[in-house]
Amino acid sequence: MRAFAILVSLITVSICNAQEKVVGYGVGAQGCGKYIEQRRTPNNYYDSLIATWFYGFASGHNFYASTSQINREVDSETVLAYLDKYCRDYPLASVSVGANELINIYAK
Predict the structure, then answer these.
(1) What number of other Cβ atoms are within 10 A of residue 103's Cβ?
(2) Of the candidates 78, 45, 73, 77, which has an alpha carbon nearest to the alpha carbon of residue 59?
(3) Contact 53, 79 (CB under 8 A)
(4) Which letter, b or e, does each residue of 40-75 get, where b requires 16 or more Cβ atoms within 10 Å of its Cβ?
(5) What's the sign of the alpha-carbon dihedral 73, 75, 78, 84?
(6) Which of 96, 92, 98, 101 is nearest to 22 (CA)?
(7) How far, CA to CA in Å, does 98 sit from each of 29, 54, 55, 79, 103?
(8) Residue 23: strand, helix, or coil
(9) pTM of the entire structure?
(10) 12: DSSP letter
(11) Contact 79/50 with Cβ under 8 angstroms?
(12) Is the pLDDT of residue 5 over 90?
């Protein structure tokens, strides 16, 4: 019985480690260091690009996550302010990880 429990544990660990990483595209795939560098100089185009990318990312979340929908408006100022703080705190992370954290705050 003990051998069975150990085998089940090993299989579970193997399955968890076999999960694929998610590949991101667009400006959300860039690192937070690049994001912070871009945000140092006011640039309405870049700000709009980031906000628009986030809305597509959030829409994709809503499309695939049936149990945790974002069901209220997240304005672009909030998106940029959150990503600014996130990327300052985690400069080695990617923008998409910060965006996912923001989605987790708003998703219900």
Answers:
(1) 19
(2) 73
(3) no
(4) eeeeeeebeebbebbeebbeebeeeeeeeebeeebe
(5) positive
(6) 96
(7) 11, 10, 13, 10, 9
(8) coil
(9) 0.77
(10) H
(11) yes
(12) no
3-state secondary structure 49-89: HHHHHHHHHHHHHHHHCCCCCECCCCCHHHHHHHHHHHHHH
At 63, the amino acid letter reads: F
Q: What would the pLDDT profile of 62-84 be if each residue is shown by its tens digit? A: 888 877 888 788 999 999 999 99
Q: Which residues contact 24 (CB under 8 A, 6 or more apart)?
A: 94, 96
> Which residues, 6 or more positions from 92, have their beta carbon under 8 angstroms from its beta carbon?
31, 32, 33
Residues 6+ apart with CB under 8 A from 91: 31, 32, 33, 36
* DSSP one-letter code for 22: P
CA 96 – CA 102 distance, rounded (Å): 10
Are residues 30 and 39 in contact, defined by beta-carbon separation less than 8 angstroms?
Answer: no
Q: Is the pLDDT of residue 20 over 90?
A: no
